[in-house]
Amino acid sequence: MKVVEFRYLGGNEVPANWRGILSNVAYRYGGELLNTSSIEVKSFNRLERKDTYNVIGIMKGEIEPDRYIVIGNHRDAWSLGSVDPTSGTATMLEITRVLGEMYKNGFRPRRSLMFCSWGAEEYGLIGSIEYIQEYVKVLGARIVSYMNLDIAVNGAYYVNIKSSPVLFDAIVKAAKMVPSAYDPDGQTVYDKWMKVHRNDITNEPKIAFGLGSASDYFGFDQIVGSSNYDATYTFNRAEHKNLSSYALYHTSYEVFSLVKKFIDPDFLAHQSMGQLTGVLALILSESPILPLNISRYAFTLKEIVNSLNTSNPNDLDPLRDAINEFSQVANEFVERSKSMDIENPYEIRLYNDQLLQLERAFLNPLGQGPNDSDMKHIIYAPSKTSTYATLGFPGITDAIVNGIRTEIVNQIAIATFFIRGASSTLKEFDKFIAT
Amino acid sequence: MKVVEFRYLGGNEVPANWRGILSNVAYRYGGELLNTSSIEVKSFNRLERKDTYNVIGIMKGEIEPDRYIVIGNHRDAWSLGSVDPTSGTATMLEITRVLGEMYKNGFRPRRSLMFCSWGAEEYGLIGSIEYIQEYVKVLGARIVSYMNLDIAVNGAYYVNIKSSPVLFDAIVKAAKMVPSAYDPDGQTVYDKWMKVHRNDITNEPKIAFGLGSASDYFGFDQIVGSSNYDATYTFNRAEHKNLSSYALYHTSYEVFSLVKKFIDPDFLAHQSMGQLTGVLALILSESPILPLNISRYAFTLKEIVNSLNTSNPNDLDPLRDAINEFSQVANEFVERSKSMDIENPYEIRLYNDQLLQLERAFLNPLGQGPNDSDMKHIIYAPSKTSTYATLGFPGITDAIVNGIRTEIVNQIAIATFFIRGASSTLKEFDKFIAT
């Protein structure tokens, strides 16, 4: 496009100090093209075969080597990628450096810590999905939690988190131990949440439940069934409501100076992200009883089902009943932990297995049908009508959009079946059968 | 059919002392109808809804209550069912009676023992499949072995066993402890095998690997993925090669006197079956290290792949390579057990989990496709071209029958994928990635 054609841009004029040297045009940004102008874009691509690599490191657990806490981040970028994914890579490498120092000083994790640097995320999550598909039997049986870094830092205002509901309390615990970047001494990531990112009804930090399909957590959510986490130190989103991401996302301007000059000049947000993710990993790897709070799932399920709008509200009754039962069973499960012999490894292990397997209980092995068999999580998964985001009960949501009642009722039956199944996994081992 | 029409039967004449009182006909059995006679059969059925029940009892394990050894048997019969299934019911009830006595005397099993009396097996395995589908998440994570009784006794010559390869050694161990019915004192079920049911090449008892779809083990094989067993005390099958089952199978003549007069007059075969199954259950429930021999699977896989006839034998190379790797990994796994700290519950538990999960590693969550998604076991399952029996690698077998090379290669790729996955589950926890 020639400069003279600036005049065809229909957006607002830029601020005075942004104007260039041409005097015969008004400098504008964005907007529609004026008149019926069109732009011809020529693309000179060629198809090439390129190899890509996942780089995986494991620090073997001393007591439970067959339970994995995984931190992962992709390594490929659309262009230079100083934010996406290098803010994540820098953060993950710093975590491995610190843990490596601890290891040299004698530290051995209780559970195994796994670090994954993925290839080809931008080309369809290829690195992580191939790895997961190849080792699904190993990973499905053993992973407690996958903690994703990707765009670890695109601002320095507060930490934005998406996770499984069961991780809520462990995340809050970690956030209380980590300083908030560029804030007064003693203010933590948690404190900042309570100031600028608080749920006013519960008076708790906002953590979004359900992750979606936008990064390497996807396969862990949908195929492995672990309880996962994704975090980004971000800008003030309330002030920039129209920005879906940071301004130079996926462009060639993702260079070091972007981060150094504009996003995180002293790298304090990077530091906090490393601390938050590292501390959370250690909370998950070192607690003899896995710090997963299943009651959070019960609470969230009730919220989700209340948000569903079926034209025949009674159609949801079986699902509501199942969720009520789940809620009661979850309470009994938590109660049981109080009389546990925490010196008995067998008791610890079997209780932890129930905690670990809860998220797996929400996986439908057949997925959302023969063409979407990888979308296995019945509560949190992209749906056909919303492929990027994550809605509660995607099958039901799709059916409601389609408006066919038999399909709605069928999807409610599937969800009810899996919630009931999840309840049975939490019951006493000789009393799991419904009465 | 009127008696006079005996003359239209084309079979052989019955022995002299079987003849009836009519003098104007030759008594015959079986054969084709002579000339072009036809028979009109009128059937007076009506569709009725009937409830059926599974009756489940659990003796909770003291140390590992979340690991189940399951004994099951159906309760419904086509008619009176003194053999199918009551020989199994009598055997299972005797096992529960004995274990109940032991319990009263203080016995507590290490793992949980579960007893299942299934309804509606004859109508399509309804009782067991419904139970399995409802509790698949619980059962899939916890069952070590399902031991099926059904036709427990239809003869008193030797015990015929079908099982997963990994149970071979535990079965042999149990068989050495149980007397062979109607044989001289001191002769065991194992001794009888070595006389009349021996594999001459290996000089070991014949145990058929793979169970099929003919009884309630089906869902445990295909959906749960436990390592299963089915046993029948049977007649001399070498002498009666033309009999696919006992003569009065599924008829109204399955009455008590059939068993008492002809099959097992002193109920010694029933007794041996109860002892064999009960002892095997205790071997499986009480051994700290699960007595599953995975090397048997490696050996068997080689046998199966050698029995496959592809027109392009090299097509099988990837599968052979995967099986060779599996074999080597299995050896290393067994080797590892020798340096295990068997006082350490965590070590026991994680090693046992690897043993337990091996059979699960052979389950393809998608089964044999959208219409056969319940046929999940890639090694032993009924195939489309043989629905009742169990062949090795049913997907490959079907593809060979169809004769389309791309389909054959595709099925070999699927099998190879799952064998490789199974190998990764057996490796060291920080070295499961292929190099």
From TrEMBL, chains A, B:
GO molecular function, one term: carboxypeptidase activity
Source domain of life: Eukaryota
Domain Peptidase M28: start-end pairs: 54-178
Gene3D superfamilies on file: Transferrin receptor-like, dimerisation domain, Zn peptidases
Pfam families: Peptidase_M28, TFR_dimer
UniProt signal peptide: none
SUPFAM superfamilies recorded: Transferrin receptor-like dimerisation domain, Zn-dependent exopeptidases
Domain Transferrin receptor-like dimerisation, chain residue ranges per copy: 315-427
InterPro entries, per database record: Peptidase_M28, Peptidase_M28B, TFR-like_dimer_dom, TFR-like_dimer_dom_sf
Family, similarity comment: Belongs to the peptidase M28 family. M28B subfamily.
Entry-linked PANTHER family: GLUTAMATE CARBOXYPEPTIDASE 2 HOMOLOG, N-ACETYLATED-ALPHA-LINKED ACIDIC DIPEPTIDASE
Designated name of the protein: Uncharacterized protein
